[in-house]
Amino acid sequence: MLDLMQEVKQSVLTQGLVSSGETVVVAVSGGPDSVALLYMMHALRHELGIHLHVAHLNHQLRRQARRDELFVRRLAQELRCPCHVAKADPAKLRQKASLEEAAREARLKFLMTTAQKHRAKKIALAHTQDDQAETILMRILRGTGLQGIRGMVAQRKMGGFIFIRPFLGISKSRIIQFLKLRRIPFCVDETNAQTEFFRNRIRLKILPFLEREAGKDIKISLANLADTAGADYDFIEGEGRRWFLKLNKKKPAGLRAREVQLDLARLNRLPPALRRMVLRIGFKNLVGHTRRLSLRHLRIGEKFLADKAASGEQHLPLIKMIKKNDRTLILRRF
């Protein structure tokens, strides 16, 4: 069995997560996963040919937040890595409907700003196989489609940067073991034991119950589900893009086009999975993302397409659908 660090190195190289000469921003909270990620990336930096920058956002939401910030600063100094720290405004974070989502958005913005300042294209996150299992289960319980079940991916383009997750196939228990064997200190987030957050309830209550009732491999099974769903989704998305290009009458559509015109008759003849994907791609082409587009919206759109008597407009989040001459479907930004 490979040593964990060598396994991470092999995974990084096999998946092409980094290239020689690149600068990588490593998100470090001070918790065990991110500390292990920084140590491993630092130990492998010469073999991988990369330069590291440490980034830490202090959300100022916990009593121990200052402790974690100082810990990360000392760790970066010990490893001789440039360290970039910022503080979020907790009052602004609490104004949002979901504190979890607000904190996540603030963190992503900070990481991308840091990467931009230091001309880094890659941002490394320490999500583990356990995090993947929690994410999949959360999405299943909330109701999701194939895109949601694919979970997190090892690398993802967002905002002009590539977020990489070298630990996505590694269990948290192996990471803790790695740290303990090497006597590497880390911080413990006391809020991880609080069950008011949905993810914590998944981690502390639901997954342990499933492990007792369905077997200890439930996290691996959920991670495998994500991998399989991801491969299927990638195939359908590729076909969807191909059909979008065929059906789009207004060429070139370009990035963030103001209008998309689709061949209505041919769109209606597509299988439901492809038709929905073409609509998703059209939506993203106009808006730049699909965060507000749900299955309910897609079903509304499909009903509008299939109803020959329907005419006029059908409004979806941020766009409107317009039937024209029974031959063309127009998607237009408001």
Word description of this protein:
The chain has two domains: 4-225, Rossmann fold (3-Layer(aba) Sandwich); 248-333, Uridine Diphospho-n-acetylenolpyruvylglucosamine Reductase, domain 3. It has 334 residues and is of the alpha/beta class. Helices cover 53% and strands 15% of the residues. The strands form two sheets. It has a six-stranded mixed beta sheet with strand order 3-2-1-4-6-5, with helices on both faces. The chain is elongated, with a radius of gyration of 22 Å.
Key structural traits:
14 helices; 334 residues; 10 strands; 2 domains; Uridine Diphospho-n-acetylenolpyruvylglucosamine Reductase, domain 3; alpha/beta; 15% strand; 4-stranded antiparallel beta sheet
Short description:
The protein is built from 14 helices and ten strands. It is an alpha/beta fold and 334 residues long.
Please summarize the sheet with the most strands: 6 strands, mixed
Low-confidence stretches: none
> How many domains in all?
2
CATH architecture descriptor text of the largest domain? 3-Layer(aba) Sandwich
CATH topology of the largest domain: Rossmann fold
Highest CATH level, the class of the largest domain: Alpha Beta
Q: What name goes with the CATH superfamily of the largest domain?
A: HUPs
Structure summary, number of beta strands: 10
Mean pLDDT: 91
Strand order of the largest sheet: 3-2-1-4-6-5
- State the end-to-end distance: 56 Å
Category from helices, strands and their pairing: alpha/beta
Radius of gyration: 22 Å
Order of helices and strands: HEHHEHEHHEHHEEHHHEHHHEEE
Strand content: 5-15%
Count, helices = 14
The helix content is 40-55%
